[in-house]
Prior knowledge:
Layout: H1 2-19, E1 35-40, E2 46-48, E3 51-58, E4 61-62, E5 72-79, E6 97-99, E7 106-109, E8 114-123, E9 139-144
Parallel strand pairs: 2-9, 4-5
Antiparallel strand pairs: 1-3, 3-7, 5-6, 5-8, 8-9
The structure holds copper (II) ion.
Amino acid sequence: MERSVSFFAALFTGFLLLYVPGSAWSRSPAPSDARVYLISPAHGETVTSPVKVRFGLQGMGVAPAGVDKPATGHHHLLINVDVLPPLDKPLPKDERHRHFGGGQTEVILELPPGRHTLRLILGDKNHVPHDPPLISQPVTIEVVKPR
Ligand SMILES: [Cu+2]
């Protein structure tokens, strides 16, 4: 009798683990002193397109997507994204959420004239932000036509 109770309890716990929303993606731990930032351009800088954007990372290493190595991740560049995507699942992938799953640390961007905001988020092997998440300060630049 006792045995069957614990069997059903274990079964029930298993179902809970499978069906609790959000438990599907586990987040990789990040050192608390790690940080991600834009090396260039600088906040408030006026630039011409194409713009070379260089990614900075401190206290962690860069590894391509899919590589399972502690304290590593790959860069994601958010372009003109006002509202951050959810941090407990893989980051979206589109024109405004660029993945650098090859382990790249810079990109050359074509941007139309005007004001643009850039921000970096580090993602783990599954493109999921770390815990705690590494999110850069936003960098706003003014793109002008070359003279
Ligand atoms: Cu990614």
